[in-house]
Design goal:
heterodimer, A: about 25% helix, B: mainly alpha, 14 helices
Chain lengths: ~250, ~425
Amino acid sequence: MTRRGFIITIVKGAALAALPAGALKVLSPSEVMAAIKETPVLWGFVVDTYKCVGCGLCVKACKQENEIPLEVPVSRTWVERYIILKDGRVLIDSPHAGANGFTSQKVNNIEVNPENIAKAFFVPKLCNQCENPPCVQVCPVGATYKTTDGVILIDRKWCIGCGYCIQSCPYGARFFNPILRVAEKCTFCYHRISQGMKTACVDACPFGARQIGNLKDRNDPVTKIIQNERVSVLKDAFGTKPQVYYIGMDENVR
Amino acid sequence: MVHGAEWTTKELFTYPNEYIYWTIQIVMYPLMTGFVAGAFVLSSLYHVFGQKDIKDLAKFSLVFSFALLIVAPMPLLFHLQQPQRNTEVFFTPHFTSAIAAFGMVYLIYMMIVAAEVWFVYRKHFVEQAIALIGKGGLINFVNRLIFNLLTLGAYDIGEQAVHKDEKLIKVLAGIGIPVAFFLHGYAGFIFGSVKANALWTTPLMPIIFIMSAVVSGVALCMVTYIVIMEWKKFRAKKKHEDQVSVEIKGAEVDVIRKTSKYLIAAMIAAMTLEMLDLVFRGYTAMKSWDILRSVIYGKDFFNIFVLQYLCGNLIPFILLLIPGLTIRRAVIATLLVLLGVFMMRWNVVIGGQAFSNSYAGYMHYSMPIIPHNLEAFKEGAAGALVIAILPFVFFWFFNKFAPSLKFKRDNNE
């Protein structure tokens, strides 16, 4: 075989080999699932901050439901207290993630005189189940993933515990599970909602400050609130597109 | 206990789940990959760009870079909460993650450096294997076995074959430079791409990391080279080989003066980029600037401006610039540079977690000194020390088979 002939054969062979490779498309498991059947569910959450009194029952219920010890300060959901003083100072705290309520007038060891308060309110927080989740993007092994119904889950048998997802979450929703030593966060109680129940925190809230619903169902009360009322999301500048919507948000909320 | 609670102190408001999750080992990780990249670049200056006057140092840097390379991923093993699953990064990489690229880039780079080391030492391996033929004793037998293995069966050390080796070394070193830059650039990308972290998120991060990598690698090679040569000189003096000790001294100063020029150039680039980043943040004054300013000019002032910029950059810069560089001055300067690079990594990794994502509170990392439990060992001073010592142990071991430092001038080469 001449050198010229050899090179031509190589090029032909390479072209042939590349053809079927180009024809194949690699689908992610969720894409395959979506192709088989369009899921009729997209989970969304509404928090009405006007209704929250900071009792902390949601946090307690969440910890019990999801087996996060009550005594550890980390939590899948938490409640923040905001106190804006008349002089413009903003005081924020969330002792024990708000699990025991807010009974002290001390905020970060500063005694607050009620006379000086301009406004005060509570903001419950949880994982925003972002449409564009940075935590999923950065996981080096694909242990955290987005389900077709919009919830971000973690594979506890796959997580290597590098903490990159924790760093990438602008909301501080993630932490290390103190028992299992893998990344942990709110899953909208996926084991409950996929069985037709509400999340533990929604069920535990005596004031209806928390609601979960199907954003693909136009008649769902949650969808109606998001469509018809003035709602906002946390830190929208990050482009994460949160699926937790807030009523009565304040500019001081972090 | 929650991971991170051991060493994190919180101040004012932080989210309940926020802790210093990335600790000293994540400081050591970019420090080590930086050393690798820098050492390799230094060796390539000779192999690719033909800078003959740093030949001695170049050979040493190559082997040292290989030793560092083996240690580079170890900080991650110390840091992972599930270290037994570390292989998943290689086997099930999720390519939208900057860390997932690690497996690929690291392996490719490892192959390049290993191949280059092999080509550089192939002649030596063959010579040793042949020299040991017929010599009795168990040690000689084992050594011969090892050298025979190291030759990989390629015993041809004729002029043509050696010339081919040299060509390949040049090619490998050439490919190695961009890969080394990539290896460390992506380490910078790991931080730079975290949009949630106000201090880390900047496209300059990979370039800043690359420049400081070159600085750190060159400085480490210089100081290690000096220490080893001084030790050999000391030993030679003890044996009253005065002529040898004078020769060592002469070889050293020339090499160090030349290398210090590269160090200065890299330092200027690194400093410029870091200053640009700082000035830009202050000038644009985004929402996060208030908290960043309070960390940079307040809480971390000593770490950033005194240890990193003054002791780690300015003082060694002046020391290196003053004409008539002596070995002693070079040692002081390079040690200070190493301190500066370590503090730069510290201020990025720990400093980036010194404030809450709520911008309303602070976190402080108290590095565990006494390893009273496994976690305090792994993510404390003791673990970091292990990582810092290991490259020298590996280098000592490699040097047994691939001697990278000769103190007698060989005129044949």
